[in-house]
């Protein structure tokens, strides 16, 4: 079968589209024939050796896939050949087929496309876990979302509204701000004078929950705009700059800085992860969340697509298709 292969930790242009051994359905694993493969920011970090996890090379990147079950292992109890599923793969997703534990799959309702399912797994899964378990967002609170036109940002905007928050979206261009408003944000602003803008919008109260996948200078501005008992969520560093925190701010402003590592959450708290996915699917069927799919591209173009994601050139979710 064909796959995207990282032969060593290296720049994105050294990824290879080539032949890779077909996976087998052993034990509790199922083999999924991919219809859609989600592209995520961590994928680009992984292949360059810049992510927390460093698998032995060569390897196939990719953490989410949706398609049909092509084979089942002897210990699989809830799935049969032909079932439509989405799965968290950790690695191995950028391929025509992938083997994954049954526990990491979910059956798809007929009304959900494979592309939308991919978006729900990682992008929406991360944002949901961040706002629900880590941020404990409550109805009526103010949520500020940085990078609000990216895949996790749009997810945070929609999930924040589903949880009853007032959502302030922050995005770099008027077009991206428009996308955030269309996704449900109450207001969208740029990064210029961010601290002062947030103070004005909140009437001086500050932000209850800050969602930051960007890092850099934006993190510091958001930290200075946090309100009493606020929760500033560290999602990632799409700006390429890992910020330093002036911890005296947390003391005098009385807010918490909370790390969000969704990948470990899915492993350490599998029941909570499963419950989260059921809630997300329910919201999807009710129309409360709806992924924005910017485009679908051939699997062979994975390196170029990843470059767009790492360069913050994408709005919404990008999908690969075998």
UniProtKB/TrEMBL annotation:
<dbReference type="InterPro" id="IPR051397">
    <property type="entry name" value="Zn-ADH-like_protein"/>
</dbReference>
<dbReference type="InterPro" id="IPR020843">
    <property type="entry name" value="ER"/>
</dbReference>
<protein>
    <submittedName>
        <fullName>NADPH:quinone oxidoreductase family protein</fullName>
    </submittedName>
</protein>
<dbReference type="InterPro" id="IPR011032">
    <property type="entry name" value="GroES-like_sf"/>
</dbReference>
<feature type="domain" description="Enoyl reductase (ER)">
    <location>
        <begin position="10"/>
        <end position="320"/>
    </location>
</feature>
<dbReference type="Pfam" id="PF00107">
    <property type="entry name" value="ADH_zinc_N"/>
</dbReference>
<dbReference type="InterPro" id="IPR036291">
    <property type="entry name" value="NAD(P)-bd_dom_sf"/>
</dbReference>
<dbReference type="Pfam" id="PF08240">
    <property type="entry name" value="ADH_N"/>
</dbReference>
<dbReference type="InterPro" id="IPR013149">
    <property type="entry name" value="ADH-like_C"/>
</dbReference>
<dbReference type="InterPro" id="IPR013154">
    <property type="entry name" value="ADH-like_N"/>
</dbReference>
């Amino acid at each position: 079968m064909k796959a995207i292969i990282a032969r060593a930790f290296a720049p994105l242009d050294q990824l290879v589209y080539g032949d890779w051994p077909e996976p087998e359905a052993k034990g509790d694993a199922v083999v999924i024939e991919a219809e859609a493969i989600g592209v995520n920011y961590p994928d680009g970090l992984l292949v360059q050796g810049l992510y927390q996890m460093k698998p032995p090379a060569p390897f196939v990147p990719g953490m989410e896939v949706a398609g049909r079950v092509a084979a089942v292992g002897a210990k699989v109890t809830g799935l049969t050949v032909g079932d439509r599923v989405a799965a968290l793969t950790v690695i191995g997703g950028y391929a025509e087929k992938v083997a994954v534990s049954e526990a990491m799959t979910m059956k798809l309702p007929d009304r959900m496309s494979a592309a939308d399912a991919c978006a729900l797994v990682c992008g929406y899964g991360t944002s949901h876990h961040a706002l629900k378990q880590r941020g404990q967002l409550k109805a009526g609170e103010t949520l500020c979302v940085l990078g609000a036109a990216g895949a996790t940002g749009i997810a945070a905007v929609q999930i924040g509204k589903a949880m009853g928050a007032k959502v302030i979206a922050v995005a770099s261009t008027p077009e991206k701000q428009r996308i955030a408003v269309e996704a449900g944000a109450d207001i969208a602003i740029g990064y210029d004078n961010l601290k002062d803008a947030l103070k004005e919008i909140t009437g001086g109260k500050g932000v209850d929950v800050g969602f930051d996948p960007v890092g850099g200078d934006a993190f510091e501005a958001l930290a200075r705009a946090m309100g009493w008992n606020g929760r500033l969520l560290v999602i990632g560093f799409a700006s390429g700059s890992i910020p330093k925190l002036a911890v005296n701010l947390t003391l005098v402003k009385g807010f918490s800085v909370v790390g969000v590592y969704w990948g470990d959450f899915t492993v350490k708290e599998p029941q909570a992860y499963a419950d989260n996915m059921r809630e997300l699917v329910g919201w999807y069927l009710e129309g409360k969340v709806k992924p924005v799919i910017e485009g679908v591209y051939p699997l062979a173009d994975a390196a170029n697509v990843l470059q767009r994601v790492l360069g913050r050139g994408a709005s919404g979710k990008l999908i690969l298709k075998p």
